[in-house]
Predict the structure.
Amino acid sequence: MSDAGDLIHPVILCGGSGTRLWPASRESFPKQFIPLAEPGRSSFQATAARLSDPATFARPAVITANDARFLVAEQLAQGGVEADILLEPCRRDSAPAVAVAALHAASHDPQALVLILPADHAIGDDAAFGEAARAARAGARAGHIMTLGIAPTHPSTAYGYIQPGSPLPGAAGGSGARTVARFLEKPDATRAAGLIGEGALWNGGYFLFRADVMLDELETHAPAVLAAARAALATAVRDLDFVRLGVEAFGQAPQISIDYAVMERTERAGVLPVGFPWSDIGTWGALWDIAARDGDGNALRGRVALRGTRNSLVHSTGEILTTVVGLDDVVVVTTDDAVLVASREAAGEVKGLVEGLRRRGEPEADAHRLMYRPWGSYQRIDIGARFQVKRITVKPGGRLSLQKHYHRAEHWVVVRGTAEVTVDGVVRLVHENEAAYLPIGCVHRLVNPGKIPLELIEVQVGSYTGEDDIIRIEDVYGREGG
Amino acid sequence: MSDAGDLIHPVILCGGSGTRLWPASRESFPKQFIPLAEPGRSSFQATAARLSDPATFARPAVITANDARFLVAEQLAQGGVEADILLEPCRRDSAPAVAVAALHAASHDPQALVLILPADHAIGDDAAFGEAARAARAGARAGHIMTLGIAPTHPSTAYGYIQPGSPLPGAAGGSGARTVARFLEKPDATRAAGLIGEGALWNGGYFLFRADVMLDELETHAPAVLAAARAALATAVRDLDFVRLGVEAFGQAPQISIDYAVMERTERAGVLPVGFPWSDIGTWGALWDIAARDGDGNALRGRVALRGTRNSLVHSTGEILTTVVGLDDVVVVTTDDAVLVASREAAGEVKGLVEGLRRRGEPEADAHRLMYRPWGSYQRIDIGARFQVKRITVKPGGRLSLQKHYHRAEHWVVVRGTAEVTVDGVVRLVHENEAAYLPIGCVHRLVNPGKIPLELIEVQVGSYTGEDDIIRIEDVYGREGG
């Protein structure tokens, strides 16, 4: 073996918006950013942390939705991870993202080894994952598009399967890598059991390849995807720490997965069977499957009390005290503004539930009460006919836009830290237990000039308190006016 | 019949603190005050409204716990009902309350007809209830302590039973009134079915009697109860619209129910069988039994969305969106700070759950976030390490106590109405969208001098924001300092 110097360039695909884990996961805060499988760390953070061995992995790249950029930056910073962040202006499934990943890596080294990783999976053994990535390298170096084929633990109907073929030419002898006989879409339960009997593996969505190989295959099987990705990178704009892909060009890309676009068509696919514990955390039931459970089979999180309840997942993610009495095999998830109660078996129907909520116009279908912003976050804590109250947290150094409102005045009471408040050109410091008044129409800005987070209570009073009554005059984070 | 002029003096026992309907019902806001069986009206209000026929019922009296007095007054006022309100300084079960009721009525007319009513029951037919009360009058006038015996609808193990005896001497011929052969405590299911086969009736806790008869029986069977009640009335203090029973005297009363103290011992008991729909709303399951249900058998209230769910009770009492997927026969109750999920069958175990929460010191076991006060109400909307935010509502004319705090400053922002704010002797008006600052230690008072409710947001900042840091200097509602 002579591939010790072959660094792998990981690219984390972080553009998903899973509603199947509602109400924790929402359009405005999708599941990969939420601490689900472990307390205190999201699956995106766990994925990034899995790439920390500098002898195996180069600096990672993250491809994410434009709306999620500050969340990505914040969660990377929390984990002390540096990465290139490429922003998709719209959703186009995985093929365009993989094309961008291959082009991005090829710009430095046409034969760079690229590893595509989903951001929203749980893996039970980081060391085994690293070993698998290293073991798949030889096949990729030899010109194969390597997938990780996960050993099935049950006849799942939620995953695609891979049927391995003959030993892979050029791959490391002992790795067990094989050619791919076939990719199979999600089967029914009987077929799934049969597939497992035949030695089929789960398709986890991990791909390791040489950039030039993937570009060749895209050229052959999905030229429109490749052309759009190329144009999107050529027209990309660097903005703060982000690379914004060209809006118009990326929008031209067909919406298609890399499985359909390339993997099911290429003759260069290889698969490395792996045995580490894995889940795509596709439903609350799947999370219960992999979660740490107590002696009654319960997976609990937050302020929870149970009585006569077994084999259930109960997550209280906010302040709410959540209790369950005399029920088995249920999922109960409470947030500050929404509650889900489901049988574990029916947890897959949550997606349909959320679609129904969206049709009814329920704001909780997509929006969280806690909203992340580049400068920090805010949370509505009360609302009435002519007022709204928010708790606003500004990071040290954070600067809100210079702005004004047509329909509301605001009262700010600082409850922690120090604020620098600008009102119509006059700048002053407002300390803990001091207040500032912002009359309707005044041009104002809020900055945290200090070393600790600034927290303040904002009381808005006026005939309209919607988010769209923010007229931005200047913004260090490059957000559009209005 | 010559009893047309015999007005019945109703006395509503309103001292309960049912935890079995947690989290809606709590020590600080017990179930009789919550709209449960009907939206918008509590069982206490429904009970008072049931007594509105002036040809049958005299002005009612209410016996309640001291802590619930403003809630009682407020709910009576909402229903336009005037009543005497007698305050128990501590809980002593029903016998002392019945003794007070009999003494209170006897002070005007020793032979007054007194009807004892629980405040926390649902009755499906108010006219039938009035007819039953009138039909029971003859027996009471003849010297019997009449109970209403409710026709059982199922072999309940949650109720006591009454075995009727021979036709009641002196009662109206056609009424069906009987002597009582036996009072029976809550039976097991087999025994309950047997009792129903033998013609036994449920003991609903309604008693109609001549004041002098009940006083005689108390003298015979429970002299200590009667003595304590007599002393408590003799040392009572009239305070605003309330009659405060003497603290020391009432505290001497044995804690015993009227069933044990008198009914199971007296030879003067009579029972009138009645057929109206009735429930003591003892559990969420009992509420589902009597609730209006949709085609899927679901009883729903508030912001609720269901999918594949049947025969369930789902109440969302706050702002929270509550969803249930793929479950039958469950109870889900959400409030702004606590959630209960239970099987309908196990709903009776909620009492045990709440006891466990109390032992764990969970504040939600007993306290609601929305707290009623004589001047209005307040609700915590946010809390942090060194701050707390409340929404305060003051009724027109409401006056908070003159007070000060040792550990916190307060910022008030008026979001509706007008406040009269006194700070260290200086009085000023604060209008909508204006703010007032109350430094630590200042002596202050808040009054609503206007014609519409005053709403304000209070931001407390300081090292301690507990309710016990309120030093009352003067209070129009007669509340104690500290």
User: Anything to note?
Assistant: Chain A is about 20% helix and 35% strand. Chain A has three domains: 8-279, 288-359, 370-474.
